[in-house]
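Sample entry as discussed:
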Amino acid sequence: MEKTDTSCTVEAENVYEDVLFRRNLELTDTGYEDRFYVKSESSHVYDYVFHVQGELLDDVCSVSGELIFSQNGYQHLSDVKRAKTEGSQMELPGWLKARR
């Protein structure tokens, strides 16, 4: 783990075989940045659960998704969306519109 007064980075190796997870949270003047990295030498399908009381202001995840699993917590997920990457990286815009 690495930390400063405004950030924290944690890493977990082999959560899944040959997969590295790294997450960095950093406070900024306007809010925060949450960066989540996944690295593997093999191709995989990754599920990333993002829960907020608001909606993304970009349509990168506007396509309805389908869950492959129905146990181990997946049964509690709803309004599932799918995002497809071009290349090896993707960025979800952090701008949210609050629901009132």
DSSP finds no helices and eight strands in the chain.
